[in-house]
Fold these 3 entries.
Entry 1:
Amino acid sequence: MGTYFLFGSEDESSKPLAYIGQTEDLKQRLRSHDANKEFWTRAVILVSRTHSFTQAHIKWLEWHSIATAQVIRQNS
C-alpha cells in the first residue's frame, strides 16, 4: 500500500512528465503501468516502514501531491 510517482518524458525535446497515483498493491500497479504507460523511466514510492498507512493516508498523500504539483505547474 502506498503512493507513487512516475517520472519521464515523451521524447527528448518534451517537458518532463509526472504521474501521481496510489494503490493497495504497488507491485501489480507498477507492472500495469510498465505495460501501459511508456513515458516513465523512474518511479518513486512512498510506503510505511511499519506498515501503518491506511487507505485514508495514501489517498491524502496522493491528493496533496497532486495539489502541490498543480500549484508548481501553474507557477512555472
Entry 2:
Amino acid sequence: MSGRGWAGVVVGAALAATAVAAVPAAASPQPRAAQQSHHAFSAAAASFVGATTVEQKVQRLEAATASLPRLAKAYNTPALWNQGLTGAGSTVATLVSYGDADIKAVIDAYDQRNGLPPADISVIAPSGPVPGCADPGVDTATCQSWGGETDLDVEMIHTMAPAAHIVIAATPVAETQGFTGLPEMMAAVDYMTKHRIADVISMSFGTAEDTFPSLDSVKSLDPAFERASKAGVTLVASSGDYGATNPVLTGPGTFPYRAASWPASDPNVTALGGTVLSLDANGNRTAPDVLWRPSGGGVSKTYARPSWQNSVKGSTGSKFRSFPDITMEGIYGTSESSPLFAGVLALAVQAKGGRLGQINPALYGKLGPKADKSGIVDVTSGDNSYGAVTGYTAGPGFDIVSGWGTLDASKFVPALVKALK
C-alpha cells in the first residue's frame, strides 16, 4: 500500500479466512503503562505484513484460503443458489480499521486465477480519511495486518453469498485493546445506519471486557448498536481466539482467568464461535464438527442475561449473557466464522425480501429448540481451555462454548426467514 492517505469508494471483488497467532497462554497481566496496547491478529491476517504489492497480497490471500472453495459445499449453500438465493439485493458490511487501498486489484487478480465470479465491493471511510500504511504515525505492520483482515473477511462473505454487495467500512484509527479505535468504529456503525447502507454488519475483532476502565464503561459504546438493531441491521461478531480468556490490555500474554470478549458479549450482537470441519476433497463431511480449541466463549461480566436466553438458563447457570450463539468454521480464527455467517445471512435477506433485524430471539425461541427442522447441527465435543485457564465444554444441545451448534444453510435460511415473519 502506498503512503498516501485515501478515502472514498472502490469497486472490486474478494474471498477470505483467518488463523490464530501463537500467544503466551495465561501470562500475568502487564502494568498498563508498560507497553503499548496491541491488536491480537490472526496468523492469516498477520501474514500480510511486508506485502506491499498487489502480487504479494494475492499470494498471501491464496495461501490463507487454500481450502476455502470446499466450504460452500460443506454448508450446503449451493442448494440455495440453485433456487436463486445468491445474496442478490443484500448488502453486507465488514467493519475494519484501515482497510486495503489495493483491494480492487488484489481481488480481481485472485478471482481470475481461481475461477471465481467477481464480487461487488464498495469501500467507505465514514469516520474520516484513512491513512496509508507508510504514513507518519501509522504502525505499518498493524496497518498491513488490517489490510489482510479486510481481504480475508470479504472473501468469506463472498464465498457464502456470491451476489451480495459487500461494503468495507474502514476507520482511520486502529482498534487495539480497550477503547482505542472503538469510538471511530461505532461512528461508522451510526453512519451506515443513518444512510441505510448495510443489512448485515460483520465484526472480526474483539477486546476483553476486562480491558476497559470499568466493566460497565463498555456500555457507553452500545447506543450505536442499539440504533442499528432498531433500524433492522443484523450485527454479528467473532467470539475470540483465546478460548475462555483474552489478551491483556498492554504487553504480551492473556488474563490468567476467564475474560469475555466484546462485542461478542453484547446482547445486540449475534456471536460466532469456531469449529473444525472434517471434509473430503469435495467438501463432504467425513465426521461431525468439533469445537476449535481456541474458540472464544464464556459468560459476560457486564451484560445481564437477555430475556431471549432465559430458555437456556439451566444450561448456562448464570444471570449473565453467555456467548457464542452459533458456530461455523474457525480454523483460521473466529474472524473467519463471523463473515461466513454474515454471508449466510445475506441469503436470508434476499429470501425475506428485506432486513432481518436482531435474530437472537428467533434463534433461541424457535430455531435452536427445533434443531432437526431448522438446520441447526449440534456440536457435542471439544472445550476452550486456554493455557492454565479452564474453559467450557461442548455437549448435547445448547452449551456455553458452541451455542446451539453449527448449521446447514439450505435448511437454516428458510427456517430463519419463517421464524422472523
Entry 3:
Amino acid sequence: MAKTARERVRGETRQEILAAAEQLIRDEGLPGFTMRKLAGRLGCAPMSLYSYFADKQAILRALATHGFARVAADLAEAGGQGGIDGLRELMLAFVRYAQDDPVHYRALFMSGSPADKAGRPDEADCQGEADCSDAVNPAYRLVAERVAGCLEQGVLTGDVLAISTVLWTTAHGAASVLVTFGHRPADSPEAYAAAVVDNALAGLQARPRTRL
C-alpha cells in the first residue's frame, strides 16, 4: 500500500530527528545527548519530539537498529571468498571499522545504553542456527552465516551459535582494546588484531566447539 503524503512527511521528519541525534552524539558523546539539546539543534520545542519518538531510549534504539544494519552492509563485502580466510577477513574488517569510526563503535557497542539492546545476540533468537531472527544484530548474523559456511565445508566443526559467539567476542575484544588504548597493545594495531583473530580461529579448528 502506498504511503500517504502525511505518512511520508512523518517518516522524513523521523529521519531528520535521527540524523540530528547521531550528529549530536558524534559531537558531544552519548552522555551529552539530551532531548533538550536535540530539540535545540532542530529548532523545535522538546515536547514536539515526543510526537515521533516515545522517549530518548526510543531514539537510541532506532539509531542502533540503523547503525547495526549499516555496519553489516559495510562488512558484507569483506571475506567474500568464504571459508576460513573469508571469516578471518570479516573479523578483521570489523576491527578496522571500530578503529576508523570509534565514536560510532562506542555508541553502538560500548555504551551500555538501551541502544545496544537492539542488536544483542541472544540464544532464544538464534536457536543454534545461522539464520537468526531479525531481532539479532545483522553484523553478528553475518558472522554466523560465514561460520555456517565453514561448517558445511568441514573446515570448522561444532555448533554455529557457540562458534559465532566465540568469534564475536574475539572481534569485540580486539576492537574494544584498540579503541580504548590505541596502539598500546602492540607496535602495530593491525598485527595485534591479526594475532588475536588467528589464535581464536586456530583454537576453533583444533578443538570443536559445542554449545556454550
